[in-house]
Amino acid sequence: MKRLLKPFFLLFVAATTLSALLSCLSDNEPDDRLIIDPADVVFDSDAAGRPVWPDLKPMSRASFDQLVVGHAWHCDATFEIMDNGIASHKNLWGSMLGMGPTHYFFDKDSVTMFVYNDAHGNINAGLGYMRLPYSFDERDNGIYIDGRRELQLAPLKLSSTQQLSAIQHIAQRSDGRHIYGMSVFRRLNDREYQQLRETYKVRWE
């Protein structure tokens, strides 16, 4: 009986060890592809050539204040929106040099943007924040800073308030064309927000 049990025991140990190793590899090497197939969303374009959410349902200012204001939003990934209206499968920040994701905290009338500033890479590794006034337009779910739409929010539901998706203006190319992406934001808890503030502690003027 003991002779029979020993091989099965060794096989069980080997299987358990392999499972643990695979789990570790999975944790250490996250997949940066879009979890939802980007083919599920084909973005329209407005008169200015900006990508917009298809069949957009407007969000009231009251809903925006309830669901977005007073919270910090961490950009977990951004997927560039191509000319055909489909988002890339790859996280833009996985290979980007000289730029980084922008994280946000919204007050009633001002937004704190936590950003990487490549020009000041020698100060706090280039990590800092800016506080700017903004406006929210109920007609297009747009968050406007200095007259330009920074974000266009996808409609939020009370049942999914921990995540926010938005079309984000990323940058302008040397030829004048603008880069837009679909960004996925995660709402931070108080401890995570405090850590974010400590990391991006330098104020950029």
What's the β-strand tally?
A: 12
Report the biggest beta sheet as strand number plus sense, adding barrel if it closes. 10 strands, mixed
- Global Rg: 21 Å
Percent of residues in beta strands?
Answer: 25-35%
- The total of helices stands at 3
Query: Strand order across the biggest sheet?
Result: 7-8-9-10-11-3-4-5-6-12
Distance between the termini: 76 Å
Provide the helix percentage: 10-25%
**H-E order:** HEEHEEEEEEEEEHE
Structural class: alpha+beta
Poorly predicted runs of 5 or more residues: 1-39
- Backbone shape: globular
Query: What's the average pLDDT?
Result: 81
Structure notes:
- This protein is α+β, with helices and mostly antiparallel strands.
- The chain has helices at 2-28, 61-67, 190-199, and strands at residues 44-45, 51-52, 72-80, 103-106, 110-116, 127-133, 135-137, 142-145, 148-153, 163-172, 178-187, 202-203.
- The protein is built from 3 helices and 12 strands; from the N terminus they run H-E-E-H-E-E-E-E-E-E-E-E-E-H-E.
- Residues 1-39 have low confidence and may be disordered.
- The strands form 2 sheets. A 10-stranded mixed β-sheet has the order 7-8-9-10-11-3-4-5-6-12, with helices on one face. Strands 1-2 form a two-stranded antiparallel ribbon.
In terms of topology, how is this protein built?
Layout: H1 2-28, E1 44-45, E2 51-52, H2 61-67, E3 72-80, E4 103-106, E5 110-116, E6 127-133, E7 135-137, E8 142-145, E9 148-153, E10 163-172, E11 178-187, H3 190-199, E12 202-203
